[in-house]
Amino acid sequence: MTDSAVVNAGTAAEPETLRAIRERGFAVVPGVLDPDTVTLMKQELLRAVDEDLAAWEGRDYPDAWMVHNLMVRHPVFARFLENPVLHAYLSPLLGDTCILYAYTSSSMPPSGANFSHRVHVDSPRVIPGYWTNVGVMVALDDYTTENGATRFLPHSFEREEAPSVEEFLERSEETKPKAGEAVIFNARTWHMGGMNSTSTPRHAITLNVCRSYMRQRFDYPRLVGEETLAHIGETGRRFLGFNVRMPATLDEYYLPEAERLYKAGQG
Question: Which alpha helices (DSSP H) does 2-143 contain, by range?
């Protein structure tokens, strides 16, 4: 059974922070993770990185230092899928039926950069006045200019053409969340990870969240097992896409409403 508290009970988005996300395209959200959870996540992330590097040894590994599908690597990452602060912001931005598109890590190596060091967006589609995807970047280390803090271009989420690097650097703003804080942003907001000039890596976990009718990067209801589901409740299952599964047979299609794979009211 889940050891999470009742999700969203007594938790609400801070109005000014939510307004900044909606109007400017991004904002730092405090109080997402407590220090003990940050420590455990960082410990387990480093273990997962080592496991992946060992598994890919001798082969070209395009995603070295980026761990996919964190929810199956340790219960602390599964439990985060029900984080009340996270959902307090996602629900007003995408609706309370939104689902997880991707769940990965992002580590900025010492004296270098990672895949984020380019002016880019995390969603290919622009629909004026309508958000399809929200990004979440949860810091496991304090972000600084020296370790490659991510820059965002305010009010740019309905812009289809990429700004030049010169324009971006002139008009963008650094975000410097502390460990345990998150940057929540419209996935169409143009942004770029910096360069880490320090001697230590900088770690974060990242989520891309989408509308319930959209496809996920992985088929999470098939990917996760009972050992993962044991650590989450109904909110986590909904977030993983369990309420929007397609029937594979007529028998599944004609199940009683309470047993159907695709639940009513999913948006």
Answer: 15-24, 35-55, 75-79, 84-94
Consecutive sets of 10 residues in the chain, 267 residues long: mean pLDDT of each? Answer: 40 96 98 98 96 91 89 98 98 98 95 91 96 98 97 98 97 98 98 96 97 97 97 98 96 94 91
Q: What CA–CA distance (Å, rounded) separates 165 from 117? A: 11
pTM, 2 dp: 0.93
Domain ranges across the chain: 15-259
Cα–Cα distance between 8 and 27 in angstroms, integer? 20
Strands (E) across 50-117 are located at 99-108
Distances (CA, A) of 228 to 18, 102, 149, 237: 31, 16, 32, 10
Euclidean distance between CA atoms 222 and 239, whole angstroms:
14
At the second CATH level, the architecture of 15-259 is Sandwich (2.60)
Contact between 106 and 194 (Cβ < 8 Å): no
- At residue 68, the 3 state secondary structure works out as strand
